[in-house]
Prior knowledge:
mainly alpha
Amino acid sequence: MTKINSSIKLLALSFFIIFFGYNGVQQYVTVFFAEKGMLSVGFYSLIIIYVLLSLCSPLAGAFVSKYGPKKAMVLASLFYALFILSLLPGSLSLVYLGSALLGIAAAFLWNGQNVYLIKASTENSAGKSAGLFMVALSSSAAAGILTIWYLQQSLSLATIFLIFSILPFVGFFLLLTLPSVPTEHVPNKFQLMKRSLTSPTAFRFSLLWFGLAFVSGLALGFLPIDIKNLFGIHLIGPLSTLFYVMPILFSYLFGKVSDKLGRKPMIILSFVLCGISLIILSLATTLWLMILGIIILTTYYAATRTITFVLVGDISSPQNLGSLTSQFWAVQNVGTVAALFTAIIIPGKNVYLVSLGFLVLSAVLLFPILNHSLPETRSIIEKEMGLVMENQNLEIKEQNLADIKQN
């Protein structure tokens, strides 16, 4: 039985501490500004974060390819504390500046994390490693949200945010102790990223990341408001925590099963669960129906987020791992931004129906390429990016040089 190595466990612990602080605060950002009569500020802050995360993913991918994922994560972690602190003075310019810096930093953090996870895992344990990481990440979010919910009964949100800003600094020091992983020398990094964007197969696979982020964005931006409107602000904490309970319970199992059965069955399961949950949430007017919808939605999230962490490794080679990782993270955050704008523009529960429409469109485009095995998909993407021809030419040049030396 393949064990998860200590590097993955330390990575998971570092992110647990960082996101105990950040996720707890993030879930209350829209509510924090709504209490000040500035609901739109919370939404726009989140939009700035995810727009810049998306735009800066190619730059982050190039940085990770050149300097390694550890340096990217260490550098980025500090800005999570700075963002939390930027909320406290109540200055709009400071909030938006903090959001912009966090968006840039997050691109480096998550590109680094994804590449590190793949490189530090063995082929037979990648799913389990991703599952363990998701358990840690979801546990941190649940613990952070519940802690703030409990503390706000006696402390102001501003005071709680100040306390929570300390945690990313702790995560920073833990990331410093991570052992480095080998990096591949990839020339013309930005040219390679441009090619990955023109790969039809890579684009279709990226819809899985888009759908995941779109649904997550709804949970981040609209679901707390929906809960508040239906049942009151006091239930935001407990009900939002349900969004993390199922990943805690099942992410490791989903990852382990995907190592044995493959990623495709998990992808199909995720689409089915997402569709059911969106239909239920669009109809939910009672507490128990809302809880059922959130439980199914979180099961979808647990399956999909775990799979996407390792799927990029399944369909990439050492040459295009960095470019595909940055592309998928960019597309993922476009999905989050789209969800936040949808929550602003589309009235009420129609948001869930719009999400269902995106889900159906993604399924139509993605499912035909699932007929190929993942190794076949990897080869198709390499051909579409022109890497096969480049490798053949390189082999010919190396052979010619060897022949010249012999002669």
